[in-house]
């Protein structure tokens, strides 16, 4: 990119918008895309621009049944806007771009750039090349060029951050296309991971979430089966790092040393999200999941023995091809035994490019729906019962930004307990900021949140709160920006039980 073009971008303040679909890995990638664009002189488009920007980037997901229809529908709505706005550029990246590299420009010839999951760092160069050559640039790398965390960033949170420790996946689950699109697992050097975390803490971040397609398989690429537990323990030695979480682990790699590291490292939170997918051994085998119900429930039992207060959540797919009523009852049994704090329950739908899409025994939609409703009702009651056990407990809640939709009307604030439960609490007399910590007593429980109605018992200002305040003050002095439309950064927020799956992670 020439210096002249870079100066032009700064002078006219060309704007960008990133639209993100899918999993936590895509969210993390979009932070990097934003950082790359801002490093090239772009500024975020004003709030409510809805595509009225100089560059619109789609970071796509390929695991949903109608992912391509959603993308092309959005691209179609931008076509007339691009006609009216000379110089506007549209880029498509992510998993769908990796999968459909040869068809995107054919179906939407007004797209300027197509890039894949392995070369997001090339976006500014590809945009510049498309502008100069006046033709679409399609560049899909077949292997990773740089870990997402090594690229410039524009993080959505001042107090919590994702940290990528690996990319890709060595599993072959029949419902998941992620390994085909993101490749085999590649681990990042432990020293690089810890250096990034230390740098983030120095900036004021107090909570990090270790991120990987199969996060606890970390070490398989470097030949150390205990590398993940060692990493957790190393995080415990970083001064100023208050909360460590990770997502998403796989039961196959969930070994006793990981449980011990979680229990013995104070800043590793008593929270575990571990996808079960099914409670039926027959269906687990058809899914190519390398564990069975007894193994999964055994892990849960060990986690609870080591951390009695741990909140455990999961993913479950209902109606996988070939699932009988007996298979489904095995899932219901496993849910009753595991007593998850919450479960993200999904109705199976075909993912293009996956072996399961072509399996015999596809379940009629009405049967899948009926089973889904029964499972959701069971889990809703278990979630409520488990939350009721929190009433009367005193919890340290990290104040969050934008988690309580009704906070303005109720004069409450919201945040996350150590086990990641959402807590709404009464505003204290002392002003608090996102990232600060408030000690409260839980007075009421609902299935998906806790309530602390009394005056907070204590308020602790933190460096994370200072970082949020500094960032907010600096942002107020700049032109209004627009959020990326992403989930909150930090520990992934619990989704409604009826939400559709975002990704094959786990």
UniProtKB/TrEMBL annotation:
Q: What is this protein called?
A: tRNA-2-methylthio-N(6)-dimethylallyladenosine synthase
Instruction: State where [4Fe-4S] cluster 2 binds.
Output: 169, 173, 176
Top enzyme class: transferase
tRNA processing as a keyword of this entry, yes or no, is: yes
- EC number assigned by the record: 2.8.4.3
TRAM domain location is 388-456
Q: Where in the cell is it found?
A: Cytoplasm
HAMAP family cross-referenced by the UniProt entry: tRNA_metthiotr_MiaB
- What residue stretches are annotated with the Radical SAM core domain? 155-386
What species is given as this protein's source?
Answer: Streptomyces globisporus
Which reaction(s) does its UniProt entry say it catalyses? N(6)-dimethylallyladenosine(37) in tRNA + (sulfur carrier)-SH + AH2 + 2 S-adenosyl-L-methionine = 2-methylsulfanyl-N(6)-dimethylallyladenosine(37) in tRNA + (sulfur carrier)-H + 5'-deoxyadenosine + L-methionine + A + S-adenosyl-L-homocysteine + 2 H(+)
One Pfam entry for this protein is UPF0004
What positions does the entry give for [4Fe-4S] cluster 1 binding? Answer: 23, 61, 95
């Amino acid at each position: 990119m020439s210096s002249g073009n870079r100066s032009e971008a700064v002078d006219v303040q060309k704007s960008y918008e990133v639209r993100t679909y899918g999993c936590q890995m895509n969210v993390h990638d979009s932070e990097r895309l934003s950082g790359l664009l801002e490093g090239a002189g772009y500024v975020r488009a004003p709030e409510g621009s809805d595509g009225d920007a100089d560059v619109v980037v789609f970071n796509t997901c390929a695991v949903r049944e109608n992912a391509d229809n959603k993308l092309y529908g959005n691209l179609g709505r931008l076509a007339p806007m691009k006609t009216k706005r000379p110089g506007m550029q549209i880029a498509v990246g992510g998993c769908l771009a990796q999968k459909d590299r040869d068809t995107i420009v054919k179906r939407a010839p007004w797209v300027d750039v197509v890039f894949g999951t392995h070369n997001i760092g090339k976006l500014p160069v590809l945009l510049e090349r498309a502008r100069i050559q006046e033709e679409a640039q399609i560049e899909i790398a077949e292997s990773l060029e740089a870990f997402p965390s090594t690229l410039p960033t524009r993080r959505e949170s001042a107090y919590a951050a994702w940290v990528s420790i690996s990319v890709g996946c060595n599993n072959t689950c029949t419902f998941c296309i992620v390994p085909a699109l993101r490749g085999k697992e590649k681990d990042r050097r432990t020293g690089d991971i810890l250096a990034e975390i230390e740098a983030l803490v120095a900036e004021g971040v107090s909570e990090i979430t270790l991120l990987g397609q199969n996060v606890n398989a970390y070490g398989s690429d470097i030949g150390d089966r205990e590398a993940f537990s060692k990493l957790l323990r190393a995080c415990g030695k970083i001064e100023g790092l208050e909360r460590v979480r990770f997502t998403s682990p796989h039961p196959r790699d969930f070994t006793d040393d990981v449980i011990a590291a979680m229990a013995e490292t104070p800043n590793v939170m008593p929270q575990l999200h571990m996808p079960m997918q099914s409670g039926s051994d027959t269906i687990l085998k058809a899914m190519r999941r390398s564990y069975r119900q007894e193994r999964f429930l055994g892990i849960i039992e060990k986690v609870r023995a080591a951390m009695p207060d741990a909140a455990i959540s999961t993913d479950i797919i209902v109606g996988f091809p070939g699932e009988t009523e007996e298979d489904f009852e095995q899932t219901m049994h496993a849910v009753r035994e595991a007593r998850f704090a919450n479960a993200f329950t999904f109705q199976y739908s075909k993912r293009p490019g996956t072996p399961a899409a072509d399996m015999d025994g596809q379940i009629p939609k009405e049967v899948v729906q009926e089973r889904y409703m029964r499972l959701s009702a069971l889990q809703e009651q278990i979630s409520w019962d488990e939350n009721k056990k929190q009433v009367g407990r005193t919890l340290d809640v990290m104040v969050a930004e934008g988690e309580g939709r009704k906070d303005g009307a109720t004069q409450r604030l919201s945040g996350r307990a150590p086990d990641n439960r959402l807590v709404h609490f009464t505003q204290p007399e002392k002003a608090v900021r996102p990232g600060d910590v408030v000690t409260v007593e839980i007075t009421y429980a609902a299935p998906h949140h806790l309530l602390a109605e009394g005056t907070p018992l204590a308020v602790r200002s933190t460096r994370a709160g200072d970082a949020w305040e500094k960032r907010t003050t600096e942002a107020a002095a700049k032109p209004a920006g627009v959020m990326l439309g992403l989930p909150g950064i930090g520990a992934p927020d619990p989704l409604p039980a009826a939400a559709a799956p975002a990704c094959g992670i786990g």
